[in-house]
């Protein structure tokens, strides 16, 4: 019996964001926007969903009067990602 | 694959997306290369000036070209401070460790230059207390050339050991190929300096500096500027 894929992660943009953050200590919003090619509005909504799920930690600061949004994956997010990859592998394993 | 299109992913597409984003993260964190460029230039210059001094018997007076390394530490502190103040767009997991390695390297260079300058005189003093002295004798003529010959033998070899440490850690840790190649060349040339005349060791140190930092620094700078001027949305 296959486990169900985590619906929070099984979305193109959210999965892209988490995959990016898993390799980094932290990343700024503009960096994630550039790497994913998403629009600011869509990215903002998806990051908010990841934050609500407890997968991503978001901190807002200011530099030279410009807002900076930093995103960092949480231990819960790492566990969810590992779980997601393990489930995916289960699906792709030849039976 | 457009990220703004939220169509359901197949399992294979998910894996491809994960793999591509991990690759993008790896390649997306570029250092500005200024530190490497500066160290490479300073050490190469110190090595070349020291070689010219030894080869052509030129006197620079009180100035020892290797003191340039100490001088280069001052802007290095400002560069590290500025990088910390400027919030970088993304930070790798090992960034703090690599920065710590380079800071400890800077302190170690500082200590080694002190060692080179203080140990000969300290040895002379300690031996004098025991009524002993190291003399330099010309074995062909039997003449004593120097009545107080104290030196650190093949001191460049010691510098090369130290040069290799942060370079190889960065090369391996950050998968920085130019630094990895530079670090390997550094190790090979360390063994060469064990057999060469001290004046040529200075030239070898200059080659090591070019391989370890100057060339990787130029490459890093190029990549950094390319990434900086790339369009924001792919």
Write up what this structure looks like.
The complex is a heterodimer of chains A (about 100) and B (about 230). With about 100 residues, chain A is α+β, with helices and mostly antiparallel strands. Chain A contains four helices and three strands; from the N terminus they run H-E-H-H-E-E-H. In chain A, about 55% of the residues lie in helices and about 20% in strands. In chain A, strands 1-3-2 form a three-stranded antiparallel β-sheet. Chain A is elongated and about 55 Å long. With about 230 residues, chain B is mainly α. Chain B has seven helices and three strands, in the order H-H-H-E-H-E-E-H-H-H. Chain B has helices at about 10-30, 35-55, 65-85, 95-130, 155-175, 175-195, 200-230; strands spanning about 90, 135, 145. In chain B, strands 2-3 form a two-stranded antiparallel sheet. Chain B starts with 10 loop residues before the first helix and ends in a 6-residue tail after the last helix. The mean pLDDT of chain B is about 85. The chains are: A alpha+beta (about 100), B mainly alpha (about 230). The interface of A and B includes residues 22, 27, 34 and 42 of A. Strand 1 (about 25-30) of chain A pairs antiparallel with strand 1 of chain B.
Features:
heterodimer, A: 95 residues, alpha+beta, Arc Repressor Mutant, subunit A, 3-stranded antiparallel sheet, 4 helices, 53% helix, elongated, B: 234 residues, mainly alpha, two-stranded antiparallel ribbon, 7 helices
In short:
Chain A is an alpha+beta fold. Helices cover 53% and strands 22% of the residues of chain A.
Query: CATH-wise, what's the superfamily of chain A?
Result: Winged helix-like DNA-binding domain superfamily/Winged helix DNA-binding domain
DSSP helix fraction of chain A: 40-55%
Structural class label of chain B: mainly alpha
Looking at the structure, what is the overall shape of chain A? elongated
**CATH class bucket of chain A:** Mainly Alpha
Structural class of chain A: alpha+beta
What order do the helices and strands of chain A follow?
A: HEHHEEH
The main sheet of chain B comes to: 2 strands, antiparallel
Number of strands of chain A: 3
Gyration radius of chain B, rounded: 24 Å
The oligomeric status of these chains comes to heterodimer
Q: For the largest interface in this structure, which chains are involved and how many residues does each contribute?
A: A-B, 37 and 36 residues
The H-and-E topology of chain B, N to C, reads as HHHEHEEHHH
Straight-line N-to-C gap of chain A: 12 Å
- CA-based shape of chain B: elongated
